[in-house]
């Protein structure tokens, strides 16, 4: 049960369509499901507004399907699986099509899957996902799919780095229209600083491990972003598209944000 379902349940009690005892029974659900190799958090959606997400790296396909199965059996409608390789994804797909009878979507570039249906966008605006180069797209796709699975409208702009500044300036309307922007860059990590100087919304910078030797697998881009002089930017960890999208979704669901601007 997530926050929306909890509100719907409480509203149904208020209007008399649900019995108090029935509602109490639903709220008394066990807080987690112990399946041996994992304790599946069943009430995270109530506490934080977003259900638990499965981190696929380091888990077997059987463990992933076991955790997802527990979540589905306990009423979770949308399940996100990050860092999922193609071979494991195929095994999860077979389980979804067979036993679960659930929708399944896999983005190979972003190594991310959605089990079940994505919710309709209900954020206050749009999340813009931008990359400096084509090589940054895998991290961007992880971010974009995560944001969509969390109920956001997403706009993608790829290969708009500062090596050809005209490519970035061609997208000023999208930049000015966004509620929050995720900027993703490797090499020297310059893109977020430039975008922060153009936009009137929060900027989330994600360094990637793209680059030559002295990029140190993304450390150079990370340090560039941390030392940015433009105000209004926060920085995520190297290659952490998921974390950036989660944070962006929280911003995009702050209902008083645009009202305060108006």
From TrEMBL:
GO terms for molecular function: hydrolase activity. GO terms for biological process: 'de novo' IMP biosynthetic process. This is Nickel pincer cofactor biosynthesis protein LarB. The lineage of its organism: Bacteria, Bacillati, Bacillota, Clostridia, Lachnospirales. Residues 125-257 form the PurE domain. It comes from Porcincola intestinalis.
